[in-house]
């Protein structure tokens, strides 16, 4: 029975990874005219839903797998640096939001978790853009530093806040589907064991 539950859990994680990759494939567009290479995508929404459902550890697993799959398929042009940037951005969001939501499993806790995750991701991406963007784009670090306040901070705040707000709106509906599926599976396993 434990093996069946583990398989069921992994299947849920795989569905969330697939949703994340599909969303970035279908929806991505620039939101900062000064930096058209910075694109909004809703790929973090299924990852955040998975984090709220299963905890920050599961959220990091979904993040890692989604980053690799996305980096090898729909975002292949960004290569290993794109995979790393995505992992550090989403991973920081997931860890902070997940740890807060585990302790405060309420609507207020969800709001606090998503706000803290948004701020964390934004701060992390300031640092990682200073390190990685000069390597990735071949631009001087000073040019990237000049973009921090007018471009990088607003972009990350907008992207993370929007994904957090959408997650807040859709989480309950999606969690009901997952709970219903999990409970149906639990009943069928109980019958099989009887």
TrEMBL record:
The keyword Lipoprotein does not apply. Gene3D superfamilies: 1.10.1760.20. The chain crosses the membrane at residues 9-27, 47-69, 81-102, 108-131, 143-171. One of its GO terms (molecular function) is riboflavin transmembrane transporter activity. It comes from the Bacteria. Keywords: Cell membrane, Membrane, Transmembrane, Transmembrane helix, Transport. The keyword Transmembrane applies. GO terms for cellular component: plasma membrane. It is found in: Cell membrane. It is a multi-pass membrane protein. It holds the Pfam family ECF_trnsprt. Probably a riboflavin-binding protein that interacts with the energy-coupling factor (ECF) ABC-transporter complex. Belongs to the prokaryotic riboflavin transporter (P-RFT) (TC 2.A.87) family. This is Riboflavin transporter.
């Amino acid at each position: 029975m434990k093996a069946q539950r583990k398989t069921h859990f992994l299947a849920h994680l795989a569905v969330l990874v697939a949703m994340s990759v599909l969303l970035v494939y279908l929806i991505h567009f620039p939101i900062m005219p000064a930096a058209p290479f910075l694109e909004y995508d809703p790929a973090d929404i299924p990852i955040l839903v998975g984090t709220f459902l299963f905890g920050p550890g599961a959220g990091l697993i979904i993040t890692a797998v989604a980053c690799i799959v996305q980096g090898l398929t729909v975002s292949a042009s960004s290569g290993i640096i794109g995979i790393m940037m995505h992992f550090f951005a989403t991973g920081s969001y997931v860890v902070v939001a997940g740890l807060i939501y585990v302790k405060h499993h309420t609507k207020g806790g969800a709001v606090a978790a998503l706000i803290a995750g948004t701020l964390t991701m934004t701060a992390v991406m300031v640092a990682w853009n200073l390190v990685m963007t000069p390597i990735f784009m071949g631009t001087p670090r000073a040019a990237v530093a000049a973009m921090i306040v007018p471009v990088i901070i607003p972009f990350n705040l907008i992207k993370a806040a929007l994904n957090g707000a959408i997650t807040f709106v859709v989480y309950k509906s999606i969690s009901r589907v997952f709970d219903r599926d999990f409970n149906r599976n639990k009943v069928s396993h109980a019958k099989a064991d009887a």
